[in-house]
Design brief:
Order of helices and strands: HHHHH
Helix content: over 70%
Strand content: under 5%
Oligomer: single chain
Length: 85
């Protein structure tokens, strides 16, 4: 994806966007998980866009943010889509 569009999307992402995306992929986030994911994105999206943060690092950091169930669902989702992008 073009970095301009990705940056614009992530800069403007809302908690509702995170909730909707998660629900659409059968990931039921608790309110505190939504807040933590939102904060993580807002604090780190520029590092990701500038290639200073890898997908694997994001997954590793997500383990600290999400419940085990949601983390496993995220990893499965990542593995499903990583070769399609």
């Amino acid at each position: 994806m073009n970095n301009f569009f990705l940056k614009r999307y992530l800069k403007n992402i809302t908690k509702e966007d995170i909730y909707t995306l998660a629900i659409n992929h059968n990931i039921i986030l608790k309110p505190n998980e939504i807040q933590k994911v939102y904060d993580y994105i807002k604090n780190n999206y520029q590092e990701y866009i500038n290639h200073n943060l890898t997908n694997e690092e994001i997954l590793k950091n997500s383990k600290q943010i999400l419940s085990n169930t949601n983390y496993n669902k995220l990893v499965n989702l990542y593995n499903e889509y990583k070769d399609k992008i």
